[in-house]
Every structure is written in C-alpha cells, then in structure tokens.
C-alpha cells in the first residue's frame, strides 16, 4: 500500500479548467495513469481540445453541465462518466460549478493536448 500525500495546488490547463493532479507517473514511477480533480466554474466553457497520446475518462462529482464529444452534446453531472478515446474533440459547458475526476491512461501531458 502506498502512502498518500496532500493534493498539490491547482493550476490552469490548456483547456482553461483548474486541475489538481492527485496521482501522476512523474510522481509515482511506472504508474501508467494519472488522476486529477478538475473544476469548471459556473457559466464557463473549457476550450475544445483533444489528446493524441492517451485516453481519458471524465467522472462527475458535483454540478451540472454539457459535455460535447466530437460536437455531440451529452448531459453531464454527478455519477455520470464518459470515456474519451484518443483524438476525441471535447469540451465542457458548466451550468453550475462542475467538479469532476479526470483519469488518463497513460498519464496526462500538456504536449499531447491540442486546441481546436
């Protein structure tokens, strides 16, 4: 069993959401995935983007909004999850403050994130 550490400070990603990386291969060698908590404030929209080198899962914790996958809208809220395969264009529109988990396999990198 691994000892957990306090979550690091948040930062703004390329898509304009605020992220706190909870687990990442840079901190835990050979992990093979990353886990982050993301916040999109009410009435905000993230930038449309895709990831070329990893798959991603969004899991809703709080709030309501719409997730667009390749231009198709999907309701997004607590306990809903979506798999975003590599190269899927996506963005979130928050009706209320959204709190979600982002799981990436392998781990998230800025270099493999492209904006539309």
What does this structure look like?
By secondary structure, the protein is an all-beta fold. Helix content is 0%, strand content 48%. The protein is built from no helices and 11 strands. The strands form 3 sheets. It has a 6-stranded antiparallel β-sheet, with no helix packed on it. It has a 3-stranded antiparallel β-sheet with strand order 7-6-9, with no helix packed on it. It starts with 10 loop residues before the first strand and ends with a strand. The mean pLDDT is 90.
List the defining traits of the structure above.
single chain; 116 residues; mainly beta
Secondary structure elements and pairings:
Elements: E1 11-12, E2 18-23, E3 34-40, E4 49-51, E5 55-62, E6 65-69, E7 72-76, E8 81-84, E9 90-94, E10 98-105, E11 113-115
Antiparallel strand pairs: 1-2, 2-3, 3-10, 4-11, 5-8, 5-10, 6-7, 6-9
